Amino acid sequence: MADLPPAPTLRARDVAVSYGHSPVIGGADLTVRDKAFTALLGPNGSGKSTLLRAFAGMQRLAGGSIELDGRPIARRPVRDVARRIAVLPQGPSTPEGLTVRGLVEQGRYPHRSLFGRWGEDDGRAVTRALDLTGLNDHAERPLETLSGGQRQRAWIAMTLAQDSEILLLDEPTTFLDLAHQIELLDLVVALVRERGKTVVAVLHDLNQAARYADWIVLLKDGRIIAEGVPAEVLTQETILQVFDVPCRIVPDPVSNTPLCIPLTRAERG
Amino acid sequence: MRAMFLALAVLAAAALAALSHGDLRLPLGAVVRAVVGVPDTPPHVLAIVWSVRMPRVLTAVVVGMGLSVAGAIAQAILRNPLADPGIIGINSGAAVAAMVVIVGFGAFSPGLLSLAGFLGASLMAAAVMALAWRDGTSSIRIILVGIGLGAAAGGVTTFLAALGDIGDVQRAMVWMAGSLYESNWTRLAALAAWTVPALLAAWLSAHHLDVALLGETVSRGLGQRVNLARILLLACCTLLSGAAVAAAGLVAFVGLVAPHLARHLVGPRHRVLLPVTALCGAALVVLADLAGRTVIAPAQLPVGLTIAMLGAPFFAFLMWERRNG
Amino acid sequence: MNRAPGRTGLRGGAPSTHALLAAALVGACLASLAIGTTTIPLPVILDALLAPDGSREHVVVVSQRLPRMLIGCAVGASLACAGAIMQAVTNNPLASPGLLGVNAGAAFAVVMAIVTLGAQPDSVLVWYAFGGAAASAAIVYGLGSAGRAGATPLRLALAGAIVTSFLGSITAAVLVFDQSTLDNVRLWTAGTLSGRSLRTFLTVGPYVAFGLVATLAVGRQITTLGLGAEIARSVGQNQAQWRAVAALLVVLLAGSAVALAGPVGFVGLVVPHVARMIVGTDYRDILPFCMLGGATLVVAADASVRLAMPEQDLPVGVTMALIGAPFFVYLARSRIGAVR
């Protein structure tokens, strides 16, 4: 892995979140690596989606703050934040009859005036987004006629039309079948390498995260247990600590990234 | 585009039909000449078309546009295809106010009733929003609180209906059933003064509505100030509904059916959906009023009832058609 | 104490909650018999019930207050149980018997009967109300469950809204033109316990009793239905059959209630929610709670209103709306916020 650029743009400073009186995240400090793909990993209930939402400025904080370029997000107008940060939640709902182009055009919202005048810039951004996600041929099709993978790509295209440098993705691969998962992750990596985007994604599959992500953050019970490049973070000890699963780590024969092989009860000996 | 012309054509046809039917059946040609202003039109034709029927038809058009666009806004903001201005309690608020005026004070001036209806509708909508506010709004909470307050208002209305003077109650029921009987140019002007700017504002907010449809998280991610947008757009919805209620009493269903129809024709993007919805709603109300006037002539069926009687089976048919969809 | 999974509740379990409720119900009933334009003391009430001697007070108790109390119990118990069943079957905490169009159907039938046949005695109208409620519910259920997806909450609500709106508009059209019918019917449409005879109660009572007993018997099946389609199927429940049984029970119970007292809202919506909060999620506990709780609520509410305003006859439907609505709003604020 090449040395990552040192200038952080998005940062969580001692962030705490609670629902009512139960703490969900306690004292999390995380600086998002610029122009890199960061994966948030952890068991259910570890707070990864909550942390992502906090980064998006959508979570009420019980303590600490989220900073963008050194200034707290909470004080900035929502529109300005949207021009820098794009968010894709889990399982977004699509209105019936909306076409791919129709959805992607929504991504221009933060750039449009109060009365929604549509300019050349807007048209160009939409075309660019459709190109990047390979959806030009499907632009006029209604979303419900697309496959799960294509639909997810359409949503990504929407976030691309937003022209924001930071993309926050909440479990983007969870409901896709394998081919579409790979397709999506390839797209994300291309966006980071070729377009200089900063991506933070909540992922479930450890091995996929190891192969694709530049930086891994492991969470458990609302705390950051470890962060770093996959080879350093995904060790037997950390995986046992975070996921309660004994495993063997071997180098992936194709990509040389850590491959986690969980041990069955028989194999634990 | 095609759909818009289709809707416009249907509306124009409906309007012409409505202008020619009535106590005195006027041939279509005479109506067209009177509308256009051909010089040698007989004065009685001019009088019937312009003083009697035109205000009523135009009121029907404006009421239809207002109610249908209000419904489209409610459906987008509340993300619920069943939403209708009635859900946020507007209709029941107006009904209570009208009941109080009629049964409580025995007054029945159309102007007073309109004012009471408008105020009742607005107060109710404000109460619903206020009670649904807990650290921000949520569409489900708005719907639920609207149902709750609406039912309470309904209880009070029924109570007043059960105890008031029977003649008053019947008059109240006619008003509540929605009636265009009292239409005239002055009231039309007042109606248009509220409705037209609100319609324009709604249309200019088309992209805000589009984004609202995508859900709260996505909307916020795109930079929409969700709570502010909800409040402002629902205020617009209340304005449109309240004005319609003030002019014509309670006309249900238009806000529910017209947007659905329009969506089938042109899809969900509001820049096109809102105008087509308005045209569909206008045509619906004009046709329903025409039916109400002619079917049991010389008696007149209030337009709200006619719409329900026609609209409900149509909607049931739609449901049946799409049962496997 | 033998606790099946899912049964929570006050210490001592559901049985002691039920006992408490039963005691409350008895208290409410006695109060209902005692309260009125003249307060009648307890010993006189007992005498009137056990050994009536034709005195004025005994007549008041037996011919006015007793039917009122009994009907209140029947209506409250039926509506609460019907609501609980509906909420389980449609998996929708907002479901209530009115959703199936029973109220609109009953009103429609009653109004049509009066318009075509003239004023009718209660005991006859009751049958029309029943029939109208059943027919309307059948149409709503049929329309809502047509097609592959079956009776989803949205389709049912939509179907209910359509049928209610349609029947309601025709009913309103008739009333707008026929003042005498309107006069006859308007008290009934508010939902009222007054002016009913013991005979009316005895006519409809058996159906209520049958419905309530049957409800208790199918508690376990209702719980399974309430777990959702996939789980119910995987434990081998014949869903179509039990959904139909549930629908029949709802029609029987809600239809009887509306036949007895006209449309009374909120009992079917609110009592099941309270039941769930207190005794947990097993319908074998919820349904008895609803029966006792619903009856107590209606009788107590009616009695309280008569205590506060002895001259004014506030229809119970209105009372329920005024009590139920704030509770509903409270539910909406407290329960729904958590989801976001």
What does this structure look like?
The complex is a heterotrimer of chains A (269), B (325) and C (340). Chain A has 269 residues and is an alpha/beta fold. Chain A has a single domain, classed as Rossmann fold (3-Layer(aba) Sandwich). Chain A has 10 helices and 12 strands. In chain A, the strands form 3 sheets. Chain A has a 6-stranded mixed β-sheet, with helices on both faces. A 4-stranded antiparallel β-sheet of chain A has the order 2-1-4-5, with helices on one face. A two-stranded antiparallel ribbon of chain A has the order 11-12. In chain A, a hairpin with a 2-residue loop joins strand 9 (215-220) and strand 10 (223-228). Chain B has 325 residues and is mainly alpha-helical. Chain B has a domain at 67-270 and 301-321: ABC transporter involved in vitamin B12 uptake, BtuC, CATH 1.10.3470.10. The mean pLDDT of chain B is 85. In chain C, helix 3 (56-90) runs parallel beside helix 8 (198-217), helix 4 (102-117) packs across helix 5 and helix 12 (267-279) packs across helix 13 (283-308). By secondary structure, chain C is mainly α. Chain C has helices at residues 14-34, 42-50, 56-90, 102-117, 122-145, 153-177, 179-189, 198-217, 219-226, 229-234, 239-261, 267-279, 283-308, 316-337. Chain C has a single domain (14-337), classed as Orthogonal Bundle (ABC transporter involved in vitamin B12 uptake, BtuC), CATH 1.10.3470.10. The chains are: A alpha/beta (269), B mainly alpha (325), C mainly alpha (340). Chains in contact: A-B, B-C. Chains B and C meet through helix 6, helix 7 and helix 14 of B and helix 6, helix 7 and helix 14 of C.
Tell me briefly what this model is:
The complex is a heterotrimer of chains A (about 270), B (about 325) and C (about 350). Chain A is of the alpha/beta class and about 270 residues long. Chain A has helices spanning about 50-55, 80-85, 100-105, 120-130, 150-160, 180-195, 205-210, 230-235, 235-245, 265-269; strands at about 10-20, 20-30, 35-40, 65-70, 70, 85-90, 165-170, 200, 215-220, 225-230, 245-250, 260.
